[in-house]
Design goal:
single chain; 327 residues; mainly alpha; Rossmann fold; Tyrosyl-Transfer RNA Synthetase; 2 domains; three-stranded parallel β-sheet; two-stranded parallel ribbon; 14 helices; globular; binds tryptophan; binds iron/sulfur cluster
Length: 327
């Protein structure tokens, strides 16, 4: 039987951080062992918010590809490619927009939230409203069965499924399968300050932070606010530091939990140990990055091979869709 197909993507917003490793990349590297995988750098999606300032886009895309490869995405197993290099994404996006009710997009919670939260860019554009339509096209072009994403993307997956049902019904076809969201199993990492880890809060540890930066960031991390003296019993579940142990080491997770709740370890020491663990974890990733940064030609070759693999599938799907639409 043919392998099931997995599709996912990321907007190229710069170097990745630990949240991406835990929330996406660790999961992707596992999936590629079992499934046929397509991983896409979503430059059109990035432009929907960065259209006024595209200067960094190219460098960010390269950084993205390097981070993926450094974290273990294997180009022999997975296709890595750039969205704008496969023109069928826009073609299918337009076709899907024919049948997507405006109300669905206007009511989409991610859309409403972004419009409310983002105040340094004008997002009241035609393209930005259609963000989930292009995302649906990304997924459907490859007829993906599974889409590994974070919780924040669930509304887009649901919209994709609604579009699939409508398309298949209207054109009396089973052209598109309904894709399933695959949520990562791990606990969510908190930011250094206890809020959600996010680029815009500047509260993250980058995959390429040097050891001394990691140590400094970990020392400044938010801990259980009720813990004042070393001997106070702590509440690890209210502590950013603990969320890292929980995500990265099942061995230390239990140990730290016990010592913290019994007041048997001080926060300074606990943080020192975490910093050491993170430095060790990131060392092989950073070594790989350094080697890849010296070989840009190799990265471009991988992206070009990925594009060829993607085109093969994309052309077939579009031919089928054009036929259904009598064009
Ligand atoms: N919207 C996704 C994000 O911001 C990126 C993305 C674009 C994507 N196209 C996709 C994710 C298709 C999954 C499938 O993270
Ligand atoms: Fe957090 Fe560790 Fe301090 Fe407990 S001992 S509150 S887990 S830093």
């Amino acid at each position: 039987m043919a392998k099931k197909r997995i599709f996912s993507g990321m907007r190229p917003t710069g170097k990745l951080h630990l949240g991406h490793l835990v929330g996406a990349l660790t999961n992707w590297t596992k999936l590629q062992e079992e499934y046929e995988c397509f991983f896409m750098i979503a430059d059109w999606h990035a432009l929907m918010s960065e259209y006024e300032n595209p200067a960094e886009l190219k460098a960010n895309m390269l950084d993205n590809a390097i981070d993926w490869l450094s974290c273990g995405i294997d180009p022999e197993k997975s296709a890595i490619f750039i969205q704008s290099q496969v023109p069928q994404h826009l073609e299918l996006s337009f076709i899907l927009s024919l049948i997507t009710p405006l109300g669905l997009l206007e009511r989409c919670p991610t859309y409403k939230e972004q419009l409310r939260q983002v105040d340094n860019r004008d997002l009241s554009t035609y393209a930005f409203l259609g963000y989930p339509v292009l995302q649906a096209a990304d997924i459907l072009l490859y007829k993906a069965d599974g889409v590994p994403v974070g919780e924040d993307q669930l509304p887009h997956l649901e919209l994709t499924r609604q579009i699939v049902r409508k398309f298949n019904h209207l054109y009396k076809t089973e052209c598109f399968p309904e894709p399933k969201a695959l949520l990562a199993q791990t606990t969510r990492l908190l930011g250094l300050d206890g809020r959600k880890m996010s680029k815009s809060y500047n509260n993250y540890i980058s995959l390429s932070d040097a050891p001394e930066i990691i140590r400094k960031k970990v020392q400044g991390m938010f801990t259980d606010p009720e813990r004042i003296r070393v001997t106070d019993c702590g509440h690890p579940d209210k502590c950013s530091v603990f969320s890292y142990y929980a995500a990265f080491s099942s061995h230390f997770k239990q140990k730290v939990h016990d010592r913290c709740t019994k007041g048997a370890i001080g926060c300074t020491e606990c943080k020192k140990e975490l910093a050491a663990l993170l430095v060790d974890l990131l060392m092989p990733i950073q070594e790989k990055r350094q080697a890849l940064e010296k070989d840009k030609k190799y990265i471009y070759e991988i992206l070009s091979a990925g594009k060829q693999k993607a085109l093969l599938v994309a052309e077939k799907t579009i031919a089928q869709v054009r036929e259904l639409l009598k064009i």
